[in-house]
Amino acid sequence: MANLLLRIARLVEWPNSPPQPAFVISIAGSDPDEPGLRLFLSPEDAPTVPIEIRHVSSLSEMRRSRIVFLGRSLGSNMKTVLHGLEGSGVLTVSPLPGFGEMGGMVELSQPEARPLILNADAARRGGFHFHVSLLGVARLARSGIASH
Q: How confident is the model over 86-125, as pLDDT tens digits?
């Protein structure tokens, strides 16, 4: 999963934001795949700025991130969290089934299918644009309807 997050980060046009001393990835909730995020720190894959991985529990902490990985354990609170992150310039990622249809930007789906479900509408509202090569390997979720 760590490699997938790195590829996603490189294939996203980020909204204009002031330079930050570190690329912050926050983890909210718990998820069985969470230990894989630690591998994101491998030096050969690192971007030009340091990467920080933080466990967070509040919306204000999440809003200070570049990517927020929302664990499955947030379940019924997911829509509230997504609403609280609107307009923050934070890319939202989760493995929770239906995350893209809820308004999340990147849903990590099962590997036997295309590994990503992208909500381009939610991303655009947040100031993000997905590179065409990322769109080519993903399914799209828009306005609550998944298309293939």
A: 989 999 999 888 899 999 999 987 665 667 889 989 999 8
Residue owning tokens 């307009």 = 87
Topology at the third CATH level for domain 2-147: Rossmann fold (3.40.50)
Which residues, listed in sequence order, are joined to residue 138 by a DSSP beta bridge?
Answer: 116
pTM above 0.90, yes or no: no
* Residue 86: DSSP 8-state: T
Determine how β-strand 106-108 pairs with β-strand 91-94. parallel
Positions in the chain short of pLDDT 70: 1-6, 18, 31-49, 110-114, 142-148
Burial class (CB in 10 A: 0-12, 13-18, 19+), 147: exposed
Enclosing H/E stretch for 62? helix 59-62
Pairing of strands 23-28, 51-56: parallel
Structural domain boundaries of the chain? 2-147
